[in-house]
Design a protein that fits this description.
Blueprint lengths: L7 H4 L23 E2 L8 E5 L1 H12 L11 E4 L5 E4 L3 E2 L8 E4 L2 E4 L7 E4 L4 E4 L2 E4 L7 E6 L11 E3 L2 E4 L4 E6 L4 E4 L2 E4 L6 E6 L26 E4 L2 E4 L6 E4 L5 E9 L3 E6 L13 E7 L5 E6 L6 E3 L2 E6 L6 E5 L8 E12 L10 E3 L5 E9 L10 E8 L2 E5 L3
Parallel strand pairs: 1-3, 2-4, 3-6, 4-7, 5-8, 6-9, 7-10, 8-11, 9-12, 10-13, 11-14, 12-15, 13-16, 14-17, 15-18, 16-19, 17-20, 18-21, 19-21, 20-22, 21-23, 22-24, 23-26, 24-27, 25-28, 26-28, 27-29, 28-30, 30-31
Antiparallel strand pairs: 31-32
Length: 406
């Protein structure tokens, strides 16, 4: 299936009955009237630059009960059928105590060299039904960016429901720097940029050093932070870039549930490792993802300055044999990684599809560098590549056996 022909309605289809329900956020309904962007001068006529008017509306919302945790959320309302052109970044920073609920909205983003929505340092933002489109000619860097700005204050608890971030972004459609307990429910995230860009960047180290036009950042680059409990439920994630769909580093308990993903690069997911210890080293990650990838050689590419990363509790499940032509797990030959240890690995790969690119793609690209414990279920024996050590349950086809251990 060519992803360019997928319609938005399909990408946001209701998941099957066994889908994991998103964790409930404690969002109260606003106790005061909505802040209407039209009332602050937005035309939303596809021609007028509405960024100044929308930012005035955001200033008004920010002033409601600032500094008081008891304040009820404020709603930002957009016209139901208007398209709001923005030529400057929208300032969603500074919402630390009063929650913001954005209902609807269609944003055409022409912020060349800058993000469309900057929410660094904010918490408890809720976007419901927003559509954001990055312009090809006046290409923004990022569609939506969230995350912390210093080491003492959190920036967590965001909720994105049926939000579409699509079009052209030179870095990523969505960027998250250590914002915890954040959920995307039935997303449509599509980056059409064909350069060194991603659809999603989840950065627990500030490795990308993304700046805010509005707030100073003092968190420090390439330092580990707590970055737990991010969830993607259903939906569609695609990148047309040359490097992969997602770049992920420093996460804990990251979960993708019944998600569809596609890209034209050599790898689906880049996993970046800075240190060799277990702390936030992409631990307890769950990828229940169907990767449909016409040109992919490896599903997961491990890279970074770590020499011997340790991973705990990594799960990957797909209903049919992977379509990568080489392996599920590959180590970047340009990286410093000499060995990888994984405890509690859980791999479940279903049937061999007739259109699989390779009749026997390997589980590990360089098995001699891997030490593994856990459970591995593969559709046939020729998918298994013996790592340096393995203990646990190995199933190949209809045959299962316990290997190693006491």
């Amino acid at each position: 299936m060519r992803t360019g022909h997928i319609v938005f309605a399909f990408a946001l289809a209701v998941m099957t009955s066994n889908a994991v329900e998103p964790v409930s956020h404690a969002f109260a309904e606003p106790s005061h009237g909505p802040v209407d962007v039209i009332a602050y001068g937005a035309a939303c006529d596809h021609v007028t630059d509405d960024a100044p008017a929308i930012n005035r509306a955001l200033d008004a919302a920010r002033s409601i009960g600032y500094g008081d945790w008891s304040t009820q959320p404020v709603e930002i309302s957009f016209p139901g059928n208007g398209k709001c052109l923005i030529k400057a970044t929208l300032n969603f920073t500074g919402f630390k105590y009063v929650g913001v609920h954005v209902r609807g909205g269609y944003l055409l983003c022409q912020t060349r060299g800058a993000p469309c929505i900057d929410a660094l340092g904010s918490r408890q933002l809720r976007f419901d039904g927003l559509t954001l489109v990055g312009d090809r000619t006046l290409e923004p860097t990022i569609g939506i960016q969230i995350g912390i700005v210093n080491r003492s204050e959190g920036a967590d608890g965001h909720l994105f429901e049926e939000v579409a971030v699509t079009g052209y972004f030179s870095i990523a459609a969505y960027y998250n720097f250590a914002s915890e307990v954040t959920q995307w429910v039935r997303p449509y995230i599509l980056n059409l940029d064909a350069g060194n860009s991603y659809a999603v960047i989840l950065d627990g180290y500030d490795h990308w050093n993304i700046a805010s036009p509005f707030v100073a950042q003092t968190a420090g680059r390439d330092l580990a932070r707590s970055f737990n409990d991010n969830l993607f439920v259903g939906g569609y994630i695609q990148s047309n870039g040359m490097v992969g769909t997602m770049w992920i580093a420093g996460t804990g308990r990251l979960r993708f549930d019944q998600t569809y993903s596609s890209n034209d690069a050599a790898h689906n997911v880049v996993l970046w490792f800075k240190d060799n210890d277990y702390f936030d080293n992409n631990n307890s990650a769950i990828f229940d993802v169907h990767f449909e990838t016409p040109n992919v050689t490896d599903t997961f590419l491990l890279t970074g300055p770590a020499t011997a990363p340790l991973i705990r509790g990594f799960r990957y499940a797909t209903e049919q044999a992977f379509q990568a032509s080489n392996s599920v797990f590959a180590i970047d030959p340009a990286a410093s990684i000499r060995s990888v240890s994984v405890s509690d690995l859980d791999i479940g790969i279903g049937m061999v599809a007739p259109n699989d690119k390779n009749s026997a793609p390997r589980l590990f690209d360089d098995p001699a560098k891997w030490s593994v414990s856990g459970r591995v279920s593969l559709p046939a024996p020729n998918f298994w590549t013996e790592p340096a050590s393995f203990s646990g349950l190995l199933c190949t086809g209809m045959r299962c056996m316990f290997r190693g251990g006491p």
